[in-house]
Please model this.
Amino acid sequence: MKLNINKDIRKGLIFIFAITALLFSYLIYNEAYNPGFEEQKISVYNYSNKGLINYSVYLKPNNLYKNNKLAEGKLYITEFVDYLESNIKYEFTGDRANDVKANYSITAKVQGFTVESEKIINIWEKDFLVVPDKTINSFEDKISINERVKLNLNEYNTFVKEIKEASKINCQTVLTLSMNVNLNGSTEKGTFEESISPSLIIPLDVAMFEITGNNIDQPGAIEETIQAQLPLNKNLVIIFGIILAFLIIAIIILIFFTQAAPDKDPLEKELNKIFKKHGDRLVALNSDIDINKPIIVKSIDDLIKIADEAGKPILYKYSDNYKEIDKFCVTNNYEMFILELTHLDTTELVTDTEDTISENTAEQINIESQLNG
Model:
């Protein structure tokens, strides 16, 4: 047995589901065969920069230490320190041969500073050139620099005391030993530039001190941007497929298991409209209406105007069969105004679907809502 559905609604649903099914079919095809592209950066040349400083602290003859040398990571007494010897290394490594030039120098920077609210404020500084500028060229995949530097800390401590006495400024001071390397290279895939500065920081003009370091291991690469095809989004295809399956099932059900409901009787439609719009104005009678020389009106609107003018209700004889409800009337003194639905041209009966109540027969017209009075 097929389900009755309003023919316009049925056609509309079939059309909407069909268009939507075509849309999701296209989305599945497009996702499967044209998932799209995205920009990706790939490395075409990789290299690394490593800077490392090792040191040893050599001592003056003293009664505390047996050896004249202390290793890294100790606490050092300034009066016992003779000099510091550091081994500064730098290494560049590429994944293949190229034209690389490294320019470097080693400096000792003495700084006077103060700390306010955990912020370091530099007061003065002076650079001492330890190793002047040097340049190394290589057409291989590697550059190595190894410099051994000896620092006489007493000389720097003496310099700091002289500055403090001359400036009358008592501040914290440090010595920063650093190798400043500027690197540039050229390959068939492009060029690159790098700058690194491994360093040691040594407090000055203090009774004892610790040395901190800044070793560097810095990788780099020359990159190219490519358009990479995205992988198939299986989850999205599955979701689209499920929606498409439901749409196809819905179309099959609408086509094979439903049918367009037959058009309503024009009289039923007109009654539905009258009771919906004017139900509170209508009075149902159980007896026949005695009609003597009635005045025929053309429409329900005309009858409403007469009822309003006369201040009278609109009467009709109640029946379980809607086809027997074919007259509405208004009495005013000796005059009887009547609207006969059966005499109306069917083209005059309202067919507006939004005013249609339901598809059942007269029992639903049974005017439960109209007969509130």
Notes: The first strand starts at residue 3 and ends at 5. The chain has three domains: 3-36+230-259, 42-223, 264-372.
